[in-house]
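Readers of this paper often ask what the protein records in our data store actually look like. Such a record has a labelled line for the sequence and another for the backbone structure tokens. Nothing more is needed to write down the fold, since each code stands for a local backbone conformation. The record that follows is passed on verbatim for readers who wish to inspect the format.
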Amino acid sequence: MHERKSVRKGTAQGGGEARMSGEATARRAAGAADSPDQRGSLKSMQKLMAVLDCFSRYDRSLSLAEISERCKMPKTTVHRLVTSLREAKLLEQDKGRDRYRMGIRLFELGSIVLANLDLHREARALIDRLGAISGEAAHLCVFDGTNMVIIEHREPGGNTANWTTTLSISPSYCTGVGKAALAFQEAATIDKVIRQGLLPYTPNTLTDPEALRRDLAATRARGYSIDEGEHQPTVRCVAAPIRNASGRVFAAVSVTGPMDRVTHERVPALAELVMATAAQLSRQLGYEAPTGARSVGRRHGS
């Protein structure tokens, strides 16, 4: 009897070892997706994105040496990456020069992204209504992490321009839509925008980092931003943030006009109008405002 008990114990141990071996095999199989080749592919993709991230509206063309310095990568590596991006038409080389710029393929891909945005589909009627009621130009813009991409605008008089012909980029630190979106980003994002430089577009542009931070704090407190001729002289803009279903501010809507028409006295009424439009768009995108919240611009950094 004692021997039979020992045999059973040994069998149980053997079964346990088999199970442990099976679990180890399963873990190895599950980890196969994280193979060295795939990890290498991911690193290569990250390097390709690092090259593309070197370009901006201020740095429209760069040499291999400049890209290498910004990416902290050897020139031989950068040359290989740039060649791959050129073949994919994501970068173009200036004719006869060792300088590169973003390729038209990126614009084509961006156009597809914008065309499929829920925001773009939901916004047309509301932007038309905002422009008609305010009698001013109405803009809808998306925050790309640094700048604002204009995807819809309506000029006074009822003309709605299609985004495929007016797609453009504006700074986030000196425009109404930009400050409405930037104010509700994480501190790291605001710091990144400041590090990239606060270029003066007009004498009213906030080029002092602390002055900009104070202005963004005021935007958060009241739920809307004001551009006091900071991007274009004699033009005033009032804007409010738009949230997605998770509550993150990713876009903004505004009304814009000459200061002699968009007067200080009109700002409160226009602010209510743009905040109502932003709130409606946010609801249509699935955002549920906290109970008792005054506007979609109450939460910071989410």
